From TrEMBL, chains A, B:
<dbReference type="InterPro" id="IPR001647">
    <property type="entry name" value="HTH_TetR"/>
</dbReference>
<dbReference type="InterPro" id="IPR009057">
    <property type="entry name" value="Homeodomain-like_sf"/>
</dbReference>
<protein>
    <submittedName>
        <fullName>TetR/AcrR family transcriptional regulator</fullName>
    </submittedName>
</protein>
<feature type="domain" description="HTH tetR-type">
    <location>
        <begin position="15"/>
        <end position="73"/>
    </location>
</feature>
<dbReference type="InterPro" id="IPR036271">
    <property type="entry name" value="Tet_transcr_reg_TetR-rel_C_sf"/>
</dbReference>
<dbReference type="InterPro" id="IPR025996">
    <property type="entry name" value="MT1864/Rv1816-like_C"/>
</dbReference>
<dbReference type="Pfam" id="PF00440">
    <property type="entry name" value="TetR_N"/>
</dbReference>
<dbReference type="GO" id="GO:0000976">
    <property type="term" value="F:transcription cis-regulatory region binding"/>
</dbReference>
<dbReference type="Pfam" id="PF13305">
    <property type="entry name" value="TetR_C_33"/>
</dbReference>
<keyword id="KW-0805">Transcription regulation</keyword>
<keyword id="KW-0238">DNA-binding</keyword>
<feature type="DNA-binding region" description="H-T-H motif">
    <location>
        <begin position="36"/>
        <end position="55"/>
    </location>
</feature>
<keyword id="KW-0804">Transcription</keyword>
<dbReference type="InterPro" id="IPR050109">
    <property type="entry name" value="HTH-type_TetR-like_transc_reg"/>
</dbReference>
<dbReference type="GO" id="GO:0003700">
    <property type="term" value="F:DNA-binding transcription factor activity"/>
</dbReference>
Amino acid sequence: MTVTEAPTTRQQNRIDTEARIVSAARSLLADGGEVTLRAVARELGLTAPALYRYAASHEELVRMIAIAIDGEVAGKIAAAAAAQPADDPAAQLIAACVEFRQWALGNRKEFALIFANVDVECIKEYDGSSGMVFSGLLVALWEAYRFPVPALADLEPGLAAILEVPDAPVDPAMKGDLAGLVWTLTQGWSRLYGTVTLEVFGHVDARLVEEGYLFRSMIADQAEPLGLKPELDRLQDLIGQLLVAG
Amino acid sequence: MTVTEAPTTRQQNRIDTEARIVSAARSLLADGGEVTLRAVARELGLTAPALYRYAASHEELVRMIAIAIDGEVAGKIAAAAAAQPADDPAAQLIAACVEFRQWALGNRKEFALIFANVDVECIKEYDGSSGMVFSGLLVALWEAYRFPVPALADLEPGLAAILEVPDAPVDPAMKGDLAGLVWTLTQGWSRLYGTVTLEVFGHVDARLVEEGYLFRSMIADQAEPLGLKPELDRLQDLIGQLLVAG
DNA sequence: GAATCATAGTTTACACCGTTTACAGTTAAC
DNA sequence: GTTAACTGTAAACGGTGTAAACTATGATTC
C-alpha cells in the first residue's frame, strides 16, 4: 500500500513526530534519564497518552528506539570500514571491529538494550544491520587473501546442514564452496561480541579494558584463521591509532 | 563487632526473615514475576514498607538477590567439578564450564542480572565466587599437565604489570613463575563468558546454540593453549554426556 | 520485676508509572 | 459542505518505590 502521491501535511507531520519521539527517547536513554512515556512526551510538549498514536505500548516504543540505534551502529561500522583504503579489506575489517567496540564502551546502555536483552526480543537482524556489514567485509577479505575456508564436508554433518541454510542474511557470496565462510563469520562474531560484552559489563580487570589488552589479544587470535598473521603488526598499529583517535 | 553470645530470638528472626525475603524474591524472578517490593512482601505476608528494615531500597534488594545467586552458581560450578574424578582436572574444568553454560541457558533472567548488568554494580568478585572456582581449577590443571605458561617478560610491559597485581582474588599459586596463569585465566574466562553470553542473548543462529556447536567449538579452541589437545576427543565425549544429562 | 529503649511491623500518603476511556479540534476525503 | 479519520487532550485506574508517623513487642537496664 505504497503512497505514490505527494505526502499530505498530516502524513509529513506524522513522520516528523515519530522521528522526534525516537530522537527524544534516545536522548533520555543516552543521558541517563528514565525512558518513560511521560518523560518522552514532556520532551516534545505532548502528554503521555498521545504517544499511543505512535506506539502501542511502552515496550514497542523501546523496540523502536532499539531498531533506530541498531541501524545507526551498523551505519557507523560501515562508515568506519569505508574510511580505510578500498584496496585494504583487512584494515576495513579491523576498523569495523574497533568502531563496534568503541561505540559499545561509549554507549553501554544502548549496547545492553540491543545486544544483551532478554525481554525485548524480535530485534531481528535485517539487511543493513551489523551482521550483514561484517558478512560483506569478510567476503572482501577472503577475495583478497584467500585464507582457507572450512569445507562443510570436514565439519560435523549437523553443523554443515545448519550452515548451508543460514537464518540471518549473509553476503550472497557465502554459498557453495564459500558456505564454510558462514562458520568463519559466526566464530569471528562470537569472539568480537563476547569480548566487547565482557568489556562493557566489566566482568574482568578494568585495566585490561582501558588499555585494550583484552581486545587486541582477541584480534590477534583471529589473525591466524583469517590469514592475517603476516599483517598482524601493521594491523595492531592501526588499532592503536584508531583507539586514540576515536 | 561479632556477637559471640547465643543469638536472641530477635536476631534469629531477622536472619530467617532476610533469608525468606531473598528466597521469595528469587522465586519471583525465576517464575517470570515482577520483583516488586509489594510482591515480595505479599509472599511473606508483610507490607512493602516492612522490607525497608532489611534493604535500604529496591535496588539494594535486587543486589541482595544477585549476591545470593552469584554464590549459588559458584557452588554449582564447584560441585559439578567435584563430581568428576579427583585425578582428572581436565574433566573437572570441562564439567565446570558446561555447568556454567547450562545454568545460564536455563536461568537467563538471573544470568542477565548478574553478568550483563550496567545498573546494579558493585557485585564485586569475592572468594567463593565463580572466578575463584575457575582459578583453582586452572591451577590444578596446570599441575597435572604443565602446559606452557606465558612468561610475563614475553608480554607487553603494561600488561605484565597488571597481571602481577590482579584486582580479583585468584588462586594463591598464581604468583612468580605462574603469574602468567592470570593471563591464561583471563583469556579463558573471556571465551567462556563471551560464548555463553552470546548463546543466552541469542544473537546467533539458535540452532547452533541448541546443538551446542558454538560451545563445543569454543572448548576445542581452548584445548591447545591448555595442553589438552591429546585429551580433546574424550573431553568432547564428556561434554556430550553432560549436555544430555543436565 | 518495672521502666526504658530499640526493633519490626503497620497505616497512610505522595509522586510517578503504563494504560484506558471519553472527548475535542483539525485535516482529509467524498 | 458534510462526513469521516486523525491527533491531540483531560481524567481516571491500578500499580510502583518511598517517606513519615505510629504501635506492639522483644531486649536491656536499674
